[in-house]
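Re: [ENG-882] Designed sequences occasionally contain unexpected residues at chain ends

Forwarding the minimal case from QA. Structure tokens:
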């Protein structure tokens, strides 16, 4: 992966020695069977920490959205019954 990126951080665009670069997982949805789009080469200087923070924020947002969706489904099923999907078009 580092060779594929030509030893360039995909965030700050600076060239680094291979030992100064990491392969960052954008998500862990397919961990162990990653697609190239799941990964990015980042420098250890600043970009990896920033990439990790952004992933954590995105996971938090997705978790909140799922909880909100679950609460909405629960409310609608109580109000309209199990066939509430008809009302949500």
């Amino acid at each position: 992966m580092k060779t594929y990126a030509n030893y360039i951080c995909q965030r700050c665009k600076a060239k680094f020695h291979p030992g100064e670069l990491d392969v960052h997982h954008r998500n862990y949805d397919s961990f162990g069977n990653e697609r190239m789009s799941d990964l990015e080469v980042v420098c250890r200087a600043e970009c990896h920490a920033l990439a990790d923070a952004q992933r954590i924020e995105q996971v938090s947002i997705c978790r909140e959205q799922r909880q909100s969706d679950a609460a909405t489904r629960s409310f609608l099923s109580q109000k309209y019954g199990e066939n509430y999907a008809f009302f949500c078009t």
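QA comment: On inspection the terminal residues look reasonable. The beta strands are 21-25, 39-43. Proposing we downgrade this to a documentation issue.
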